Amino acid sequence: MQEECLHYLVxxxxxxxxxxxxxxxxxxxxxxxxxxxxxGLLAGEDKHFVTLAISHDEDSDTYLSPxxxxxxMIRKFGVISADTSCSSTLHPSNYLSxxxxxxxxxEIFPDPSF
Length: 114
Prior knowledge:
Blueprint: E1 6-16, E2 34-45, E3 49-53, E4 55-57, E5 62-64, E6 67-70, E7 74-85, H1 98-108
Antiparallel strand pairs: 1-2, 1-7, 2-3, 3-6, 4-5
């Protein structure tokens, strides 16, 4: 019997690049960094990147919407669940509520600095 394919469901807080389309006066640009919070299956990691995905097709070993985040941009990293099925498709309706997420993270990371 084949073992079930599982991934970590993670939350990553990271600084993103900021851009504008077209001609823009630099003095009107926001001067503080843009902090992004991303959640997804931990699809991979190497020396420079952490890769999140919405879903994983185990049969073809392909990922839906992989998102590579440079490690130098990551400010916080946390595990929401250690046993999320590869066949799960993460969709906003499947996410934990803010209250559930806070409770889960408090259990995993009792240190409030997370």
